[in-house]
C-alpha cells in the first residue's frame, strides 16, 4: 500500500522552525508521510521586527516567496518579533500558512521580556544574540530560544511554533467553516 505524501515547504532553514512544521503536520495527519523542507526566504522586514505588524508581514512575505519558488502542498513561515504592549515588552511569533489559494495567519504565545532585553533590541540587537550574551549560550535561536531560557525549559521556541501552527491550520482542517 502506497502512503499518501504531504509536501511542506518552510520559509527558513532554521531547524527549530522545520521541526515545528514537521511535528505539527505529523500530529494533524498521522496517516500521511510528511516531507518537510526548509528554504531561505526573505522576510522583507528588519532582521529583528520590533512591531506586531512588521512581524506579521515578515511571515506573509516569506510564505509568498516560497510559493513562487517551488511546488508543495503547504507553505509555512514563522516570524519572531517583539513589541512593547501596555503591560510591557514581549516576544511572539506569527505563523503564515498557505495551501492552494488560501492563506491562514496565526500567532504564538506572548513571552514577557525583561526591560534590559527590550532596550538592547531597541538599540539594534537581535533577540537571539541578546539572550546568548545574557545566558552565556551559543545560537539559542536554533535551540530552545528565549522561551526555553526564560521558562527554564518548560516551554521552547519549537513548542510555541508547533502549537501556533496547529491553531493556524484550523481553516484547512475545517474548510466548510471558513468560506
Description:
With 179 residues, this protein is an alpha/beta fold. It has one domain: Maf protein (Alpha-Beta Complex), CATH 3.90.950.10. It is built from seven helices and six strands; from the N terminus they run βαβαββββααααα. α1 (15-28) crosses α6. The protein is globular, with a radius of gyration of 16 Å. The termini are far apart. The mean pLDDT is 95.
Summarize it.
The protein is an alpha/beta fold. It has helices at 15-28, 52-69, 115-122, 127-135, 145-150, 157-168, 170-173; strands at 4-10, 32-38, 74-85, 88-99, 102-107, 111-112. It has one domain (4-177): Maf protein.
Write the layout of secondary structure elements.
Layout: E1 4-10, H1 15-28, E2 32-38, H2 52-69, E3 74-85, E4 88-99, E5 102-107, E6 111-112, H3 115-122, H4 127-135, H5 145-150, H6 157-168, H7 170-173
Parallel strand pairs: 1-2, 1-3
Antiparallel strand pairs: 3-4, 4-5, 4-6
Q: What class do helices, strands and sheet pairing give?
A: alpha/beta
Question: How many domains?
Answer: 1
* Count of individual beta strands: 6
Globally, the shape reads globular
Average pLDDT rating: 95
Q: Any low-confidence stretches, pLDDT <50, length ≥5?
A: none
CATH architecture: Alpha-Beta Complex
In CATH, the topology is named Maf protein
CATH class call: Alpha Beta
Could you tell me the radius of gyration in angstroms?
Answer: 16 Å
How far apart the termini lie comes to 34 Å
Fraction of residues in helix: 25-40%
Give the amount of beta strand, in percent.
25-35%
List the helices and strands in order.
EHEHEEEEHHHHH
Main β-sheet: number of strands, strand sense, barrel status?
6 strands, mixed
Amino acid at each position: 500500500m502506497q502512503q499518501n505524501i504531504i509536501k511542506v515547504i518552510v520559509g527558513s532553514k532554521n531547524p527549530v522552525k522545520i521541526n515545528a512544521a514537521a511535528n505539527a503536520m505529523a500530529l494533524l495527519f498521522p496517516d500521511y508521510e510528511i516531507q518537510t523542507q526548509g528554504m531561505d526566504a526573505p522576510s522583507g522586514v528588519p532582521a529583528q521586527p520590533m512591531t506586531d505588524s512588521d512581524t506579521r508581514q515578515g511571515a506573509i512575505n516569506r510564505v509568498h516567496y516560497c510559493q513562487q519558488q517551488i511546488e508543495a502542498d503547504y507553505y509555512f513561515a514563522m516570524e519572531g518579533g517583539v513589541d512593547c504592549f501596555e503591560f510591557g515588552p514581549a516576544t511572539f511569533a506569527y505563523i503564515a500558512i498557505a495551501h492552494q489559494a488560501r492563506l491562514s495567519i496565526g500567532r504564538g504565545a506572548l513571552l514577557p521580556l525583561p526591560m534590559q532585553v527590550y532596550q538592547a533590541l531597541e538599540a539594534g540587537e537581535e533577540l537571539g544574540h541578546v539572550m546568548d550574551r545574557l545566558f552565556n549560550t551559543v545560537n539559542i535561536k536554533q535551540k530552545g530560544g528565549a522561551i526555553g531560557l526564560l521558562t527554564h525549559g518548560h516551554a521552547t521556541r519549537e513548542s510555541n511554533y508547533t502549537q501556533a501552527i496547529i491553531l493556524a491550520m484550523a481553516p484547512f482542517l475545517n474548510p466548510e467553516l471558513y468560506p
